[in-house]
Amino acid sequence: MTLEARRSIFSRLVLAAIGLSLALVLVLWFVTHQTVVTTLNEGAAKEVDVDIAGLVDIYATSGLDELRDRIADRVALTPAEGRTPHYLLANDAGERLAGDLTRWPALDPMVSEAGAIAIGEKSRGFARAVQLGPDLRLLVARRTDASAAVLRNIAIAFAIGGGMFVLLVALLGRLAALDLQRRIGRINLAFREPGKAVELIGVRGRDEIDELAGHSARALERQRGLMEAYKETSEQLAHEMRTPLSHLDNRLLKALQAEPAPRVAERLVEARAEIKRLVQTLESLLDIASSKSRRGDKAGLLPVDLSAMVTSLCELYSGSAEETGHSLTWEIAPGVMIDGEERQLSRLVTNLLDNALKYVPPGGKIEVSVGPGPVLVVSDDGPGISPADRKKIFDRFYRGQGHSHDAHGSGLGLALARAIAERHGLQLTLEDCVSGSSFRLEG
């Protein structure tokens, strides 16, 4: 059984039904077995008691010789039905006077004791002993081991019938479970791929599951409508903010083209840089919101060669690293694929590389590795991240107290990287390091 099957509630229900059915069959067999055994024993006891009553009457009316003759006749007669009878007529010393049994069992004739005895070497029987006179005792027995065949046949019948019953329960349970699993699977698919939710809206409510499917579909449709409205509002807001900022930047550019005084020109350049930073911050916030809103949504994801993409980025950044005095090395396993948006994944990696180049002093080492999983690791030997910053490093607008040689930045790089990772169903974490820092992205 696969791990998924073991974890499925429907598989567990089928197994529980099979176990319950098997337990029920075993209980019924046990009750039937005990009932048959009790009935057979009671029947043997009645036969013995009736036989004893007749022999006692013969002894009382006709004497010892007649009793011995009657016992001999009964021993010689093999009954067509019922249990084979056995007898022992003996004196008080246990010496046989008549019958086919040779040894007196541990039964007290003075109290008409009854119980199970051995008959021969392999057979068992039910017997009762009675005292006929001062020096005469009688034992009458009926074999009960013949009932073992009856019990064996009952056990076989229960094994065959019970097995068919358990198989029928398993089959019907599995068919019912598959139907439930299929219906629940449609609901889960709608949550994994919201575009499928519309297929559930037309489902007629046969039971609670169909009702749940309808409610889920309508909730997903409302959520999608809200997210589209949110996206539209965000894009409109971004457009309304970009437009005046763009106009302001153009005016500042025209002012610079007029060749103002050096001090004024310096301030105009700083203002244009602030405008650019505001636009970048706005775009990063919109990207973070978009990635978080699409977390777990696989729509639009296509196979991406992560190995080729990271290799290309490392080659692109190697020139910048050389100019800033950093050592950038990479070890990329070939053919590592992932379903995703290549542009977003590329931005995630560049944010990690930018973060390393920003905080690692010149002369430091930056290492990048990609392996199956996929697993991407970007590590460095820089000043590292203080324990106080570790829990907040992925928060928006949070900038640690590290030794950054770049005073600029909005504190959104790592927040955006994590949002992109979550949108692709990946985890971006900061690993514990003795020195430097190491960011690990894995599925």
Automatic annotation (TrEMBL):
Ranges for domain Histidine kinase = 236-443
Xref: Pfam families: HATPase_c
Q: From which organism does this entry originate?
A: Erythrobacter longus
Q: What is this protein called?
A: histidine kinase
Reported EC number(s) for this entry are 2.7.13.3
Record carries keyword Phosphoprotein: yes
Q: Which GO terms describe its cellular component?
A: plasma membrane
The residues that cross the membrane are: 12-31, 154-177
SMART domains given for it? HATPase_c (SM00387)
Its organism's taxonomic lineage begins at: Bacteria, Pseudomonadati, Pseudomonadota, Alphaproteobacteria, Sphingomonadales
Which SUPFAM superfamilies does the entry mention?
ATPase domain of HSP90 chaperone/DNA topoisomerase II/histidine kinase, Homodimeric domain of signal transducing histidine kinase
**InterPro entries noted in UniProt:** HATPase_C_sf, HATPase_dom, His_kinase_dom, HisK_dim/P_dom, HisK_dim/P_sf, Sig_transdc_His_kin-like_C, TCS_sensor_his_kinase
Catalysed reaction, written as an equation: ATP + protein L-histidine = ADP + protein N-phospho-L-histidine
Coiled-coil spans in chain: none
PANTHER family the UniProt entry points to: HISTIDINE KINASE, SENSOR HISTIDINE KINASE YKOH
Write out the GO MF terms: phosphorelay sensor kinase activity
Q: Which UniProt keywords apply?
A: Kinase, Membrane, Phosphoprotein, Transferase, Transmembrane, Transmembrane helix
Q: Where in the cell is it found?
A: Membrane
KW ATP-binding (keyword) present: no
